[in-house]
Amino acid sequence: MSSILPPTVKLLINGEFVDSQTDQWREVINPATQQVLARVPFATTTEVDAAVASAQEAFKNWRSTPISSRARVFLRYQQLIREHLKELATLLSADQGKTLADAEGDVLRGLEVVEHAASIGNLQLGELAHQVAGGVDTYTLRQPLGVCAGITPFNFPAMIPLWMFPMAIATGNSFVLKPSEQDPLVTMRLAELAMQAGIPPGVLNVIHGGAEVVNALCDHPAIKAVSFVGSTAVGTHVYQRATQAGKRAQCMLGAKNHAVVMPDANREQTLNSLIGAVFGAAGQRCMALSVLILVGEASQWLPELVDKARKLKVNAGCEPDTDLGPLVSRDARTRVERLIAQGLAEGAELLLDGRNPAVSGYESGNFVGPSIFAGVTPQMSIYREEIFGPVLCVMQADSLEQAMAIINANPYGNGTAIFTSSGASARRFKELIEVGQVGINVPIPVPAAMFSFSGSRGSRLGDLGPYGKQVILFYTQTKTVTERWFDEDDQSGAVNTTITLK
């Protein structure tokens, strides 16, 4: 009896979706059912080189394509994404596990960056100084770098690729994308739509693989810049390897995000915001609120928070009214369960245990329900490590100053939030907190597309963040031109051996 192999994920090289010639494959698995959805190839060295060579050749023409023509490609692209939103969300939910509503949000947040990419011409303007010396003008040009590469994680397989290649391509570069090998299906569909929108062959290429492909992108001499979002360990490796090879690099890394709740906060709005920010996407977000600091009398809110979390519905992401889908893999589930057990062993109080939830019809899924620890201290593993699951660590503080001291002592600096009705408390918090992205009564302060993602300290390597104004600086280089023109009959010049202009 012959078995039918699942479909294979293609590579995108020079505008063609091609089969890999590799002998190394990984299965793409639905995390709710364990169904094998596809097989993804780990690209060969020859295939990586072909993708980069294609991008290198395409850059020659794309760099001189008018800004308005590049913008029109992304105007068409954003429309195609809108038209296929439901399909994209269904694909994303199947191979990543998110609820359909969360999957749509994943696509829509990426779409915001695509829309911004269609209008970034005004951010590429240079500067001009007239008459810096006699008959001399100086001006700057913002020119594309060349071939750029992006390495994206499993948790946002639509949004984060859309953070990267649209901005790079809109500024005149070509791009080689390596999506997560765990859930590449929606990313590949986005690549197909990008081709339909009119991105020329070779300007966008997609390859798949693991550590060897990542290293190849960091090492390849034709690649000028590397963008990465993912774990601290891998991101640190990418940054060091890419920069040692002379490339620009921006790496968004791990996090441990804190929320401070003051006693004067709006109780119902705050509790609802916390539940969504902690347990949405099953906690698999680098901006998830994983630590809650209750100040003073706000500690009395904890039983109500636990009760709200207990009522969340755990189910497959495709099922209606689901609040939490499965974790992306068996390994992810095992890791989260290990850390929960470790938290108990180290003395934290487990107020809500989400291990082994009963999910009818999906008994083999990678499910962990909402889990809440109280009595957490900075020395515990559940505080020091990024759990990346639906687990909340609750701490208490006597004052705002004590809460800020806890946050500022943590090595990470991705995001933080304060919930309060006091303008004075909010102002003090935003001024003194040493975290790159701050929410005031906003639980997940990811900035809109016209701003830049500004995580800091241990959550980021590189000076310039993805999307917004900063990414224009990352994907372009400044060329300064100083020029003077003479009339044909001007014979007044003299030899000048100094470095000054007159």
> What is the CATH level 1 assignment of the largest domain?
Alpha Beta
Taking all Cα atoms into account, the compactness measure Rg is: 25 Å
Major sheet: arrangement of strands: 14-15-16-13-12-18-19
CATH topology annotation of the largest domain: Aldehyde Dehydrogenase, Chain A, domain 1
The level of helicity is 25-40%
Overall strand count: 22
CATH superfamily of the largest domain: Aldehyde Dehydrogenase, Chain A, domain 1
List the uncertain runs.
none
End-to-end Cα distance:
87 Å
What would CATH call the architecture of the largest domain?
Answer: 3-Layer(aba) Sandwich
Mean pLDDT: 95
Strand content: 15-25%
Class from helix and strand fractions:
alpha/beta
Query: Could you describe the largest sheet, including whether it forms a barrel?
Result: 7 strands, mixed
Question: What count of helical segments does DSSP give?
Answer: 15
Identify the notable features of this structure and list them briefly.
Aldehyde Dehydrogenase, Chain A, domain 2, alpha/beta, 502 residues, 36% helix, 22 strands, Aldehyde Dehydrogenase, Chain A, domain 1, seven-stranded mixed β-sheet, single chain, methylmalonate-semialdehyde dehydrogenase (CoA acylating), Ald_DH_C, methylmalonate-semialdehyde dehydrogenase (acylating, NAD) activity, 2 domains
